[in-house]
# Entry
Amino acid sequence: MTDTPERTPPAAGGATSRPPSAPQAAPGEDPSPLLEVVEYTDPLCPWAWGSEPVFRGLRAALAGRVHWRRAYAILFDDDDDPPPDPAAETAWYARHLADIGAHTLAPRAHTLSRVAATSWPSSLTAKAAELQGPEVADGVLRRLRESVFVLGEPADTPALALRCVQGVPGLDIDRLARDAASSGVRQQVRADRAEARRPVPEVLSVRAESPHPGTAKETPDGELRYALPTL
# Structure
């Protein structure tokens, strides 16, 4: 599955680096899990929203057998050029979400206020929530996705991100605000973003009978990154 088409046309290119290998057990430790699953994603990606039920089932089926890690790839970057006509882009993007919804059967907001300006606030919030445990992290990520795909108001500022996750069971909202603003969490998301832009060769020229076969995407600045979501 892949994500939203980029705003610039694709061009040929390549990347050779692979993601980190599966974690190795120290001497005397239980060797399982032997496999690491990396989910390259973005809280505001419509294909990730549509894939959520399948991924949830897969995580449940593999529980205790793999180490599952999310890497936030930043679909909407801070340095993306602003649209010359925001209303026209919002109308186009709403139609695009409808097309994706027809493919994934995921619910979507009837009215979209705007196209997200940036993925950074929601990605920082999602990464910070991981410090409070997997259940809190899953709940926070779900709320961030609902901000755009249910409410039509993308969580693209720190204030909106914190507001939309209020009330997640077990969440310490004050700690979340501090952690999301910390240099440590920002560095982790920067590392996620960089890792997502080192796709394995196998995803550079995928061909399949699907509108979104998983081929790596070209970003507006000419880099290649994994399509979102990719496992």
Q: What stands out?
A: Confidence is low (pLDDT under 50) at residues 4-23. The chain has one domain: 35-225.
